[in-house]
Amino acid sequence: MKREERLNQILDLLGARGQLDVDEIVQRLEVSPATARRDLDSLAAASLLTRTHGGAVSNTVAYELPARFQKDTNDGLKAQIAKRASSMVRQDMVVGLSGGTTTKAIATELGMREDLVGEPGRTTLTVVTNAVNIAALLAVRPHIRVMVTGGVLNARSYELVGPLAQSALAKITLDLAFVGVNGLDPTIGPMVGDEMEAAINEQMIQQAEHSYLVVDSTKIGSRSFIILDREEVDGVITDDQLSGPQRAELEASGLPVINAD
After folding, report:
1. What mean pLDDT value characterizes the chain?
2. Beta bridge mates, 179
3. What range does the domain containing 21 cover?
């Protein structure tokens, strides 16, 4: 198991229980006690938990998210995309994240970035989102300032939408925006299933100096209900399962492709 996966599993266990000891990590993750202690020390250094004698306690149980957002059938592909997108983020940036499981994976990856942690009390990254699950995920990272748009909650996607959300986004600037979509057709463009979510996604793209669609390869060639304007989109970040012909079609349509590998 890779180190990043172990750290995420440790945080998941802490979110569910509030406390954890080294022995349980050894048994559940099949690692040595020394590795378990190093992982806990690393998470403590990033202010993601508090070390105790023989284990750790969660800084807050708010880490736990709604169950419908915990797993995804393509979470391996989304993890690839998340790592690539996260690598584009630097300290002191303002980053926009739309709702969706891929952008939630990006938020998780950003929260695990030890190099983004500065001196205690210093904000090193600002994340702007209209997704309440993403806001909840990042709320326990003291070095990340989270701005949540206003608006009406879409119970299906946990996104805030409507005029209040749009007006909040219209008053800020973003260095980067990562926007999830439900489908991406090279000819038609990116698409989502809800017209109010589409309006928020387009507003986020407009406010960003650089904006990227984040979409796993299974959605490329698929269609949804509302077409997004793609003129201001800088490119598409996707996984390593994208085929050569798919890539050629996207780039011919004016959407440069950034592969996870």
Report:
1. 90
2. 213
3. 3-63
Secondary structure class of 149 (helix, strand, coil): coil
Strand pairing category for 19-21 and 55-58? antiparallel
d(CA 107, CA 213): 15
Of 63, 81, 102, which one is at a domain's C-terminal end? 63
Residue with tokens 């939408």: 161
Residue pointed to by tokens 């005029």: 163
CATH number at residue 89: 3.40.50.1360
Domain of residue 10, CATH code: 1.10.10.10
Q: Helix, strand or coil for residue 99?
A: coil
The residues, ordered by sequence, that sit 6+ positions from 201 with a Cβ below 8 Å of its Cβ are: 98, 179, 181, 192, 228
pTM above the 0.70 mark?
A: yes
DSSP-derived letter for residue 211 is: E
Q: Residue 122: count other Cβ atoms within 10 Å of its Cβ.
A: 11
Distance CA 24, CA 180 (A): 36
Number of Cβ within a 10 Å radius of residue 106:
28
Check whether residue 27 and residue 99 sit in a common domain: no
pLDDT in tens, 152-165: 998 878 999 999 99
Residue with tokens 């994340």: 127
For the chain, first and last CA: distance in Å? Answer: 19
Q: DSSP letter for 218, please.
A: G
